[in-house]
Amino acid sequence: xxxxxxxxxxxxxxxxxxxxxxxxxxxxxxxxxxxxxxxxxxxxxxxxxxxxxxxxxxxxxxxxxxxxxxxxxxxxxxxxxxxxxxxxxxxxxxxxxxxxxxxxxxxxxxxxxxxxxxxxxxxxxxxxxxxxxxxxxxxxxxxxxxxxxxxxxxxxxxxxxxxxxxxx
Amino acid sequence: xxxxxxxxxxxxxxxxxxxxxxxxxxxxxxxxxxxxxxxxxxxxxxxxxxxxxxxxxxxxxxxxxxxxxxxxxxxxxxxxxxxxxxxxxxxxxxxxxxxxxxxxxxxxxxxxxxxxxxxxxxxxxxxxxxxxxxxxxxxxxxxxxxxxxxxxxxxxxxxxxxxxxx
Lengths: 168, 166
Fold this sequence. Notes:
Chain A has 168 residues and is an alpha+beta fold.
């Protein structure tokens, strides 16, 4: 009992002790780690809320049927367009389906349904030819951050025709 | 009330987007009837709703829902081929188009899409702003709010026999 009492007191008054600063503090350290992790997640996760209203429960087949090119790739650069209602992203393509695309492509997106690209992020993208050259996409075209695209990628692997990413 | 784009009305909509989004006139009677039913909902259930009017007044355009809804220079077109539920030519624009998919869901979904697009007409920002969709929460259409998130939420993958609608 003599040994037990101080131990209980030490635990009970841990936070109130004048010597608290010299004691090991696992809780704040864990909290700091958690906050750092959360901040990194929020900065890196390409969050796309519903700026544009998209149909719900659309199948991968339907997205694939509408698009003319389907690729996975990493966003190298993002620039706002001249009109100020969208962006042009330079994307390094890793994989392609449906039709051949160069290894590096410029993708434009605009209007209230513009896709909000995050530099450095990887995406599965459903593309259309842009009138002035290059490619175009929008928020409701079926695009997903690659980390969240598992089932859709699986569908593509099973049903889509593989295309090449040769050339530049 | 916004003007419905009909064949022969002399109105020319914006040029189509590369993703297939178009601003076509309403030629199908059934689809037109659904649009009119949605506008009836907006006129009789939402137009006089104070929280909705207040919500709209806080948008960059500064007009109430009633004021935007009563603006006959706003056109509503039909989009049979694009991927969106609805689109407006630009933030602050006056050219709305409603996707064919919403008409398959029904008049309430069309009504919700129109509220979203009317918010863009009143200056609600495009991506990544969620101001337009948020207006549904104060306009009595909370149940039709779509929280869509790319990267965080993997949308349900329906069977791949074609689109399915809730």
